[in-house]
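To whoever picks this up:

The parser on our side crashed when reading a file containing two proteins. I've narrowed it down to the boundary between the first structure block and the second sequence. Both blocks are reproduced below exactly, byte for byte. First block:
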Amino acid sequence: MAKSSADDEELRRACEAAIEGTKQKIVLSIRVAKSRGIWGKSGKLGRNHMAKPRVLALSIKTKGPRTKAFLRVLKYSTGGVLEAAKLYKLKHLSKVEVITNDPSGCTFTLGFDNLRSQSVAPPQWTMRNIDDRNRLLLCILNMCKDILGRLPKVVGIDVVEMALWAKENTPAVTTTQRTLQDEPVETAVTGSDMKVSVEKELVAQDEEEDMEALLGTYVMGIGEAEAFSERLKRELLALEAANVHAILESEPLIDEVLQGLEVATNCADDMDEWLSIFNVKLRHMREDIESIETRNNKLEMQSVNNKTLIEELDKLLERLQVPSEHAASLTGGSFDEAHMLQNVEACEWLTGALRGLEVPNLDPVYANMRAVKEKRAELEKLKATFVKRASEFLRNYFASLVDFMISDKSYFSQRGQLKRPDHADLRYKCRTYARLLQHLKSLDKNCLGPLRKAYCSSLNLLLRREAREFANELRAGTKASRNPTGWLEGSTGSSQSGNSADTSAVSEAYAKMLTIFIPLLVDESSFFAHFMCFEVPALVPPGGGANGNKSGSNNDNGSDDDLGIMDIDDNDSKAVKNSVDLVALNESLRDLLDGIQEDFYAVVDWAYKIDPLRCISMHGITERYLSGQKADAAGFVRLLLGDLESRISLQFNHFVDEACHQIERNERNVRQTGVIPYIPR
């Protein structure tokens, strides 16, 4: 085992040098580590509570017959020299506590009752091992006992363990003995006295001598076994004779005892009879109490049930109660834009109230109650009233919006000025009522049909007026002369370039018509589908396939994308419902855009009359738009472009047939040469 610092003579001399001039002598010096714990969290050290090396020295000072004991704390200076840091008087030591949070058991604190601030945690001293700790603490305790005549409170240490350690390690304190040899009072802390003070002899020396003297005064006489046996027999016979004599003398007493027993027996019999009577009465009383408890339990259960029932009924009444502000909005509120928030909140409340009175959300026991049925009928009446009022308002609102735009000529093309149709303001005003339409659909799906027809009818008038005015002004503003049909002039090698007029403006006018109106019609179709709450799959942006697994070429001959709606997955649970909405959307789009094709036909016929050969360029323009709209959001637009393509093809075929007929009629040699020489013309 490593040598203890308590036996370090050099350390002792350094300590004596540090306290030189104080007339104190070192009894024990030992190296420790100082740390400062936190109250309630002993053993947990923070950044500012790191362990610091220190030396604890026990010293005494003799002044006449009085001896004082001190505990000194010495620290190392910058040069490594020990210097005195703190001085504690052992007479103020009140508690020695070993820190339980330290599993090694080498950390302890010393509590002094004269410290100014008791709120600051005392420093913690950590020894190198248990032997050093026991050695220091044992020396402190012995000095307190011998010099001060009392012991401080010891916490967290086993006294028996200390005694065993002192017994096994008595030679370890020889250093202390050597130090104290010259002091008459200091000999009280030698090794043998340490052992006696801790082990606490059971019997003092004076008491032991008194007991030996007492035992010596009584002669047992057990030196010979036979004599001792005779003595025991004589004493036994004497005891038996004394017992018989005592029994004979106590006969009157026995008679009195027997009489008392008889009286007691009679009293016991009377008591038994009384107890039986009381038992019967108690049994009847117990039965009455049980009956009362049973009735009381039933009453308590009934009270609890009634309380719970009242709470449930109160909750049900809260659900059945119609708030006054919502009732006012549903029955007679305004549908102006400023009041739309109140209307939407009223719709949300009405939808939630109706859903809350349905069986999945309402206990089936309540569903058949008369109050619930009456409240459901009242809510249905409120719903019907609100749906009727909202539908009538929206029909009139759509019509008034369109009438206002039609009456204002600045929305349309005028003489000398082509006006691009702008529906941004119209859509903004309609979006104000988009949430109202969604709530109307959740309240009554059947009300959307008339609203859709009213919207389509009103907007159809606006679109047809815009297309008609635009087409008229487009034709009036296009400068192009008619191209003479000089197909019979010249012969096979002749050239027609000198007689041809430039009619490219006609094709440009047709392209402008498509450029302006085709995106407008597509946007209107998409807005209508969303605004009128059609439950259809997501609309695909232009340029993408209708389905991620299909390309545009696969849809050339199919009609799946005629509505411009994404294909429905066969595994979708809403496929049937979506297909129904697709049919309804197709019919509504036809009502929305029907009739606008006449203005496109008029432009095609006008271009044909100016130059029939412009059918070729118009066919190419139409084909380009048609291929670009395969995955767009409006099916009727595809139908319109297809009809335009068919009409252009029909016009061009008519022109070709007419030209061939004229050639065959006027050229005699056409049967020999054919019509090939006329094609370049």
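<<boundary where parser fails>>
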Amino acid sequence: MSAEVESIESVPVSRKQSRARLPRIDSFLRGADRVTHAKVHGANDDWVRTLRLAFQSIGVVYGDIGTSPLYVYASTFTDGIKHQDDILGVLSLIIYSLILLPMLKYVFIVLWANDNGDGGTFALYSLISRYAKISLVPNQQAEDALVSNYHLERVTPELKRAHWLKEKLEKGLISKILIFACTILATSMVMGDGVLTPLISVISAVGGGLTEKVNLTTSMTMEFNPLKAAYLRKHPEDVAGTYYKSIPGPLYWPVFVVSVAAAIIASQAMISGAFAIVSQSQALGCFPRVKVVHTSKKYEGQVYIPEVNFALAVACIILTFLYKDTTKIGNAYGIAVTAVMFITTIFLTLVMLLIWRISILWIVLFFTIFGTAELIFLSSALYKFKQGGYFPIAVAGVLMSVMGIWHYVYVKKYWYELTHMVTKDKLEELTKRYTIGRIPGIGFLYSELAQGIPPIFAHLVKKVPYIHSVFVFVSVKNLPIPYVSSEERFIFRQAGPIEQRLFRCIARYGYNDEQEDANVFAASMIEQLKNYVHDETLFAETTEQQLNNENIRQRPVGQSTVHAEEILEQVAEPQTEQSEPEHIHESKQIYEQELANGVVYLLGETEVRAEPSSNIFKKILVNCFYNFLKKNFRQGEKVLLIPRDQILKVGMVYEI
């Protein structure tokens, strides 16, 4: 619960103090009681739909692994086979690698470390950040943990190891930066993989079928077939086209068709993964704004990003002309894959220590076995840095720079708003100094600040001392979970006396939630705001009546909490229009009338600059690179789906 929610103390206090100590009705609790799990699929799905989704999942998750053998022998024996025993050695490495990494690690261990069904580096980062405050943005609130999808198990002091690790992660800035750096490094490598997988898979499949120069296996199980190895021992000179040459003539074209289809599935798998991971990183403030299209109304998390799709296509075309064969592409691909695997092992070790809290012996065994194997693979892949392995590192460097710069300024902007926010005393001072007029309609002032009133409001009333009849400070906040139900979307707080109709609202989304249309958003918010006003008004009146009762001073110690619960029950009871007091019913009608008068969305058009005293590196980073990214990516009104004729932009300079 929020720190604002307290129980009644039984000591004699003044009326004002007593009222302040009564538990207040949180707008979150009203919605939480009505949470529906209609979005959870599986219980009512028929078996045909389940099989279809299972097939899609296998294609997305394992398509990349299934087509990796396309180039395994050609990439291994780049200079030809020197000794026939090397063939058996390579075949053994393939078999044991598939057993150790994809099957034992990913199927039996990694898949358990999912974030409400979502996987990937950012999903692991989000999962860890719910148990330890490792986010560089200080916008965590106690109410966040009450969201139904949070699934938070409190780390207790009795579990000394987990508690010690939690404290170290939360207090150490270096540890937070390192975890974030590993996250965006893995994300960048996956993006590079999204370029390399379509390139190497399709070239291998098509090129091998037409020119008989590429080794191909259509599925992972073919790696266990000794006829690969047997043919090579007899014809070592055919290492570049072993598989096609070993296929009987009548099966050649059917196998070729299946191979191309498998390559397309693998390519689509990595492209889909790139879309998902960019969407997640954008939601958590780690990537510039891009257009995210949700392709399925029935199933969440299926997204398409036009800008990313175009960038991947251009990169694939350029690399095709640069590399021309699969050998160099395979060298680049190996670095990208093994780097992501090793970072996954590091994150999963943190999950085991902090969340699963299993025996330290199992954790050490896990990290030693899998970490050692992956480091060996990574070191061997880095050995081919000059032969094409530089590409994923170059891509990672560019993407990490973009994501790092964007998140750095994002964090600095948040701290600027937090340190310059309009406090309650400053708000009273503004209302006294400036005669603030009220105009018809509803105004939403957007800000990323979740803890108070943003400084841009003071700038607004100094320049234009008019605000709308109902004025709401809106903070769109992304929680480190995939989804937030619509019933739990909004949290309201009063920014002034309730008759002034000034409110703060936090709209919470998960990183896979779809942003609704602005008018739908406004209607939903106003509906829940009316409920909040009803609860607050009735709560104040009920409290006043109870405090007037002399029995409150005569109750024995221990019954005062029961008294608080009685008040909560009275206020929380659903009210019909007929049973509502007349003044509360009229208050609700005011909000309906103002909604009909129109909604205006006020967006902060902030120009971010480095402080004059900053060093030259910071000035270049903020004034040049960040502002270049901001101008060339999507603007806030497009992301929030706000009609242009309802936007009012407020300009202000932030010196960070």
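After patching the parser it read the second block fine. The chain is about 55% helix and 10% strand. The CA atoms of residues 208 and 214 lie 4 Å apart.
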